[in-house]
Amino acid sequence: MTSKRKIISVALIVAAVGVVSFLLGPGFYNDYKNWQFTKQMDLVAEQLDKASKDEYQAMMSDTYGGKTPQETLKMYISAVEKGDYELASKYFVVEKQDAEAKSFEGTTQENLNNYIKILNSLKSVGYGQENKYYSMKADLEGPDFYTDFFIYPNGIWKILQM
After folding, report:
1. 147 φ, ψ to 5°?
2. Which residues lie closer than 8 Å to 56 by C-beta, 6 or more apart?
3. pLDDT at residue 79 in the model
4. How far apart are CA 44 and CA 40, in angstroms?
5. Rg of the chain over CA atoms, in angstroms?
6. Which end of the chain is more exposed for a tag (fewer CB within 10 A), N or C?
7. What is the band of 21 on the pLDDT scale with cuts at 50, 70, 90?
């Protein structure tokens, strides 16, 4: 190949690369980054959707609790009085059941009796947010003690927090 042909070939290659770079340039890079971001967001959305469906299934299959917050509280108190802390923990929302079961470890009978006294003194505060939540407050001297309930999609009331 002659040097003139080499120069023309190199010039054509450089020109072609220049044209391609110009056509694909910053717009192409931005489009690629947007595509990557969209793909990542779609993956996150899929994961959230799956987690939401899993949580919903867990709620629907959890049948421990009453048809009213008061009924759930009575069931919980009964289980605590019997020393069945595993059963008592099942009256809490799914994500708090393990912590609730462990919360009784090392508890003295005196502390248990005081706790049951507080639970028996709970009085209605009322419903909240479209009747999906219900609160009760202990009617005793001292610091406020609230218990909040949440209704599952299957109509079962669960203890949200104490």
Report:
1. -130, 130
2. 153
3. 96
4. 6
5. 31
6. N
7. low
3-class secondary structure for the chain? CCHHHHHHHHHHHHHHHHHHHHHHHHHHHHHHHHHHHHHHHHHHHHHHHHHHHHHHHHHHHCCCCECCHHHHHHHHHHHHHCCCHHHHHCCECHHHHHHHHHCCCCCCHHHHHHHHHHHHCEEEEEEECCCCEEEEEECCCCCCCEEEEEECCCCCEEEEEC
Q: Looking at per-residue confidence, does 150 or 41 come out higher?
A: 150
Given a contact cutoff of 8 angstroms between Cβ atoms, the answer to whether 160 and 148 are in contact is yes
**What pLDDT, in 10s, does the model give residues 102-146?**
999 988 999 999 999 999 999 999 888 888 999 999 988 878 899
Strand partners, 146: 137
- Kindly report the number of other CB atoms within 10 A of residue 159's CB atom: 25
What is the reported pLDDT for 82? Answer: 94
Per-residue pLDDT tens for 41-80? 777 777 767 767 777 887 777 889 999 999 999 999 999 9
Measured CA distances, 157 to 39, 40, 153 (Å): 39, 37, 9
Q: 29 phi and psi, to 5 degrees?
A: -60, -45
d(CA 104, CA 72): 19
